[in-house]
Amino acid sequence: MQTKLHKIMVSSSLLQKYNVPTPRYTSYPTVPHWEGNLTESCWIDLVKKSYGEFGQEQGISLYIHLPYCENLCTYCGCNKRITKNHAVELPYIESVLKEWQHYLDILPQKPKLAGIHLGGGTPTFFSPEALTLLVSTIRSSTEVLPVAEFSFEGHPNNTTLEHLEALYAVGFTRVSYGIQDFDEKVQKAIHRIQPFEKVREATHNARNIGYDSVNFDLLYGLPHQTVETITQTFNQVAGLKPDRIAFYSYAHVPHMFPAQKHFENFLPTEEEKRQLQEKGKALLVHMGYEEVGMDPFFPAPRPLVYCQKLG
After folding, report:
1. Mean pLDDT of all residues in the chain?
2. Which domain holds residue 68?
């Protein structure tokens, strides 16, 4: 009993020690690395150096940011532009391809492509035709490796069957849906209304087309979240059996994103947030997932069973 109590106390003290703001660790190098005197010539030298070290054998992986959204999800900390004007699609795609041509001019040879990830914003804000133009143009200027992985982030409300089919046709086999939470009160607070039925439809569509991996993003620390509501969300998630789950902390930074101010009186306390994290992790383990790194959860490998023929 003393040992168990001591472990809890140590865990709480460590959480308190490291509960400080840091650069977003999902981007590497982190933002402070780019601040200062990173000139164009310095950047070109870094690109050439990196490509010389691993590009010719391992290939390069591209992250392409598509920043547009029709509606503002107030929890979001990403670089985005809110608009319902879809006339912005083609000019933005043309600008990305112009930048890509600059990289082709820098690299010493036709690059090998190990992967593409489309992030946002909402990549499925763009039409299937615009996304096809973007990806097919990049593919045609590279040597796509047999092991290349193409993935994109999708909003279940606007990831249509046509989006999934078009992206699958140009090599995409992984999709990550931003779920965040299924509780209606939480969804209203963060302005992210997406019924369970829409998520189920988007998940089934991807699998029926042939996507290898359907991933869910889930957040803890959102306004109005409780242990009871997060348990209900995870029960609904379990029924859809996502191939991967990212379970991570909501970052409250209203000085950067003022829209977050309107729900800050309904955020869980620090202790309540810790309870949400622990409950969520316990539920994921119970569902058959195991934690890999800080946020991702993968289905736990099943033990091999060897049968010996008798007689």
Report:
1. 89
2. 43-172
